[in-house]
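for the recovery benchmark. tokens below, seq after
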């Protein structure tokens, strides 16, 4: 019984640490995809958008754009893309973390 509890604590700690690391990676990737687009803003051209901002990699889950004639920017969320980005990041980071932390066989 105690051996089982110790193993479960180890698995729980592995999942918790991997989830924390994947959240850090997800926020970093999202911030970098945002940061690469904020400067310089595109100038207004007749018939085209004033500026367009998209956040997310590899799937865009947030967009903000300014159309001609509007005084406020328009925006949109794609929830399924946000979930896909989170899931993909979690799987990749957890896989790498498990490969790097598994005990070495002699």
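predicted aa per position
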């Amino acid at each position: 019984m105690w051996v089982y509890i110790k193993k479960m604590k180890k698995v729980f700690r592995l999942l918790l640490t991997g989830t924390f690391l994947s959240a850090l990676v997800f926020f970093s990737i999202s911030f970098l995809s945002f940061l690469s687009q904020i400067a310089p803003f595109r100038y207004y051209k007749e018939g085209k958008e004033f500026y367009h901002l998209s956040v997310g990699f590899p799937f865009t889950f947030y967009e903000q754009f300014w159309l001609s004639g509007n005084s406020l920017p328009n925006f949109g969320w794609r929830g399924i893309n946000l979930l896909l980005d989170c899931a993909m990041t979690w799987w990749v980071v957890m896989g790498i973390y498990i490969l790097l932390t598994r005990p070495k066989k002699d």
